[in-house]
């Protein structure tokens, strides 16, 4: 459910000229999906809750596609060289794991809602899907919460306060919203235990209201992500410096034909050190006796 909120420049959304536009579309599409998600949960409070399920399917499907797009963009940024994960732990935990986990969580929620919709639409013969639907509605938010935690594992060599504020304004709403979805799904499963409800009746009021508040937090996080994308592009990265020796640097090194910055600094220091060493003073030779006499004369 939660979109990747990375500020690293390793992402590559298509060709160079279309990169900024694609990132704007990516962030805007996620924000639109969260608004649709909120509308779907509000529709569950109406007289036609099945229409709310259809809206939820559309919203969750869009969010899953956005996360898959994030994954494809990061794979393109490293030229699909998965071996670089060994030299860049943050690449594996954030750039690759987060989109995969979030897309998987969205898929599980999509299937859970789809099972409920089929049972509500077809009726008898699909009752066996009800238990699986409730379990999927719990498993999906678990992956969202895990992805939100991994999404916070971003470390930089140097980042100013503006970047840190933008990042936390995205991480905190996503984390809190995922937790609300998980708590609501667990409470709904406990409420429905031992009851004879079917279809949309399996979605209790606690699940709907907690999901509404979770969707509001996702909208806040999505809006903050749009602001971050705009600021990062307009202000040239906001003095953000990635960790040295990462995957992106390993790719740039052979292209530019020189060593990474950290290695260059060490090499320059080694070359400068012998020249800066102070030579010990040469021992003074004794002045010959004739020179002393000539000097006195």
UniProtKB/TrEMBL annotation:
* Keywords associated with the record: Membrane, Transmembrane, Transmembrane helix
Which residues lie within the region annotated Disordered? 265-297
Protein name per Swiss-Prot or TrEMBL:
Uncharacterized protein LOC115742191
Organism whose genome encodes this protein: Rhodamnia argentea
Q: What stretch or stretches form a coiled coil here?
A: none
* Parts of the chain that traverse the membrane: 24-43, 55-76, 96-120, 132-153, 165-187, 207-230
């Amino acid at each position: 459910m939660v979109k990747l909120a990375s500020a690293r420049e390793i992402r590559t959304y298509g060709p160079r000229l279309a990169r900024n536009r694609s990132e704007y579309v990516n962030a805007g599409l996620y924000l639109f999906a969260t608004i649709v998600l909120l509308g779907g949960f509000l529709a569950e409070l109406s007289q036609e809750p099945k229409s709310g399920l259809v809206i939820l399917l559309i919203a969750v499907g869009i969010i899953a596609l956005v996360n898959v797009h994030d994954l494809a963009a990061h794979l393109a940024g490293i030229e699909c060289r998965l071996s670089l994960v060994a030299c860049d732990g943050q690449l594996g935990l954030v750039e690759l794991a987060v989109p995969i986990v979030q897309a998987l969580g969205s898929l599980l929620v999509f299937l859970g809602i789809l099972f409920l919709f089929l049972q509500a639409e077809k009726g008898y013969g699909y009752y066996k899907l009800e238990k699986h639907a409730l379990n999927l509605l719990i498993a999906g938010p678990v992956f969202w919460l895990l992805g939100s935690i991994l999404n916070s594992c971003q470390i930089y060599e140097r980042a100013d306060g503006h970047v840190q504020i933008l990042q936390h304004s995205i991480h905190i709403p996503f984390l809190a919203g995922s937790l609300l979805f998980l708590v609501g799904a667990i409470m709904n499963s406990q409420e429905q235990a031992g009851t004879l409800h079917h279809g949309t009746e399996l979605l209790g009021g606690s699940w709907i209201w907690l999901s509404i508040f979770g969707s509001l937090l996702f909208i806040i996080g999505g809006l903050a992500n749009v602001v971050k994308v705009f600021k990062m592009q307009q202000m040239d990265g906001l003095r953000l410096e990635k960790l040295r020796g990462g995957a992106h640097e390993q790719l740039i090194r052979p292209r530019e034909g020189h060593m990474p910055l950290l290695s260059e600094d060490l090499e320059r220091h080694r070359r400068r050190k012998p020249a800066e060493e102070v030579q010990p003073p040469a021992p003074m030779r004794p002045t010959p006796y004739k020179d002393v006499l000539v000097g006195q004369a």
